[in-house]
Amino acid sequence: MTSAYDRYRAADLDLPEEAWAWNLWGAGEENMGKDGAPELVAIPEPDADHMLVRIDSVGLCFSDVKIMRQGGSHPKLYDRDLAKEPTRLGHEVSLTVIEVGDHLKGQYHAGQRLAVQPDIYQDGKSTAYGYTIPGGLIQYHLMGAEMLETDDGACLLPLPDTMGYAEGSTLEPWGCVMAAYTQRRRLEPKAGGTMWIVGRPGDERDYLFSSGLDAPATIVMTDVPASVVALVERTSADTVVRNGIGTEDYQGLVDELTDGAGFDDIVMLDPRSAATAGAVAKHIARRGTLNMVGETALDGLVDTDVGRLHYDYTAYLGGRGPDIAASYGEARNRCDLRPQGTTVFVGAGGPMGLMHVQRAIQQPDGPRKIVATEVSDERLKALEDRLAHLAESNDCELLTFNSQTSDQSLHDFVMGITDNQGADDVVVSVPISAVMAEADTLMNSDGMLVFFAGVPNGTLAPLNLSAVYLDNAQYTGTSGLTIHDQQQVVDLANRGELSPGSIVGAVGGMRAAKDGLQALVDGSYSGKVLIFPQIHDLPLMGLDELKEQLPDVAAKLGPGETWNDEAEKALFDSQLSGSS
């Protein structure tokens, strides 16, 4: 006899006349749904340019909470009046195609399983799914050009039959994690851009610029040595010389020569003053570079815009010289964890932090020693329960640390396990500038600091930028993802090198969606909260609660009581057994 789950997978269940949906009618949780519950809406028939899709699973994210709280004032809703034009939350989505319009039949077919890449742009404007475009907290909805004809093509990723629904929903957050270790910075001078070379009066060093100096259309020079002037004069770039200006004049220079956008590439020669370095760094353009070349340390830490490192991909490069060009390129600027090294994850107990730790553990030739830090012993225990078996099987030492309960500082702990060298890599998933600054003190001199959590642009943290040019330290940050990052997760899962579903921490049905959002606020679960819209009345429950509530499902959990396809099948069989 065919099981309910098998019929569901085959899209062999009767289509209802109406669908349950959580529409967001304004700011605040009281405006999500009607009277605190989802509402019934008609299921439309697709025309030639649309297809009807069934939402199989939705992962909840703190971004959903932000949208619910801010309503139409959220930046990606563009002051939309939600009372007249509601949206829906849910951008971490796995779906099945149910019916395809005539114009789309060559591209999609009924029964096809897809995951959503929600970070969408239409004509250069962000129209993300689950934000501007109503998202996945609904049982069925239409998809058309808003999802299928974006600036990057269709934002849907085919899923292999071997991948479960929950796993499909985790591709978006997993893709964000993968993106954090994929080179997003521009590492060469911009062709046709504007370069500013800032010298130090009295520096008479003979510099070289072996490649890249012919790229800028305009080169601005301030107090540069004669050797650099001679190099610039050999190029075809328009040149501007502004000697003797102070930091208070920098903004005027930016306004005059870049219309306030900032310089695409900045080169600082023989920097000595941390204050000057900080003032110069303020004027890097989005996706711009600051190349620091010198042999003497700055006189202090640099107040650095850590928000722009995350959101604007500003790149801090450097080298000892004399070849200025030696700072550029991927060979010198790594973005992934050091093989066989020591990595510290700050804020490791939340869903995204857990994913970073799991990736590091399962990464071939990844770090051999991992420190997971949190301020909650409960979260650290949940992390150990979930990931210790993976660490053991991958020959990786997993250490946990809670600075709130330890008698030593995190800095002393890290130095103690690294012979006072510091960690090779530090990954920060906590959006607090003071925590980001502390993380910088944990690094080896040639380490990498990854700002995964974003803080607003303009947020400053004191960083040791001397290490960038003296020892090749790396400062990176990323925001968002591409469909290629999600495909990487699928490929890793297919090769058995990543188990994406093991990040699930709690499951619930459609009515539990609002409870799931509150659980995010309360930090109730260390893993991801997954909602299955086609299961209506399943209350929200952590995987540790399944033993009492749904023992048949609990019996199918993997090592460390982690979610897998067998548990998902048992859940659907238990909840949909009455469907036909």
UniProtKB/TrEMBL annotation:
The keyword Disulfide bond does not apply. It holds the Pfam family ADH_N. It comes from the Bacteria. InterPro entries: ADH-like_N, GroES-like_sf, NAD(P)-bd_dom_sf, Zn_alcohol_dh. Keywords: Oxidoreductase. Its cofactor is Zn(2+). This is Alcohol dehydrogenase catalytic domain-containing protein.
